[in-house]
Design a protein that fits this description.
This protein is an alpha+beta fold. Helices cover 21% and strands 34% of the residues. Strand 5 (86-90) and strand 6 (99-104) form a beta hairpin. The longest helix has 17 residues, at 3-19.
């Protein structure tokens, strides 16, 4: 199986995992990346982007490893950095750590990961997800009120997370 077909299979598996369960407001995905100090950077799939698609596209096009030009956006000045893990867009006007991460799926679609989201996991829970991750999806993991399935990708571990609903009659 080629890397492209594995990534496509991963995308299909992630969608299947998210949609195999009744939808809830907390159904989402997280991208977990290990930092050099051993801690995690967690990116959230859900959420309202502070930038429009056009602004994201313009910033992505101007991204450079050393940082592209500062661009005035609807969220203030922004700068895009080309990294091995995708394009990092820094949004200092929204706070010192505010950022977006832009990735492309195996089909060329753009995925915007947010630095903030509704699902908050502990370091131990993040570690459990990372250790359970496999390219085709690891075992289902119970994290308090959430269930998750983790997948290894080229830029980190993606975890499909959902809150199960009680079945009728139980």
């Amino acid at each position: 199986m080629t890397a492209h077909s594995r990534y496509f299979a991963f995308c299909l598996g992630l969608l299947a995992a998210l949609f195999a369960h009744p939808a809830a407001a907390e159904d989402t995905a997280l991208l977990i990346q290990l930092k050099p100090d051993g801690r995690y950077t967690v990116w959230h799939a859900g959420g309202q982007s502070p930038l429009s698609d056009d602004e994201i596209g313009a910033l992505e096009a101007g991204a450079r490893p050393e940082g592209g030009k500062n661009v005035l956006t609807s969220a203030g000045l922004a700068q895009a950095f080309e990294t091995p893990n995708g394009v990092l867009i820094r949004l200092p006007a929204l706070g010192p750590e505010r950022a977006l991460l832009i990735d492309h799926d195996g089909c060329g679609g753009i995925k915007v990961w947010h630095d903030r989201g509704d699902v908050k996991l502990t370091e131990d829970e993040l570690t459990e997800l990372v250790l359970s991750a496999l390219p085709e999806g690891g075992k289902n993991v119970v994290l308090g009120q959430y269930h998750a399935k983790a997948y290894t990708t080229k830029i980190g571990v993606v975890a499909a997370i959902w809150r199960p609903r009680a079945r009728p009659g139980r």
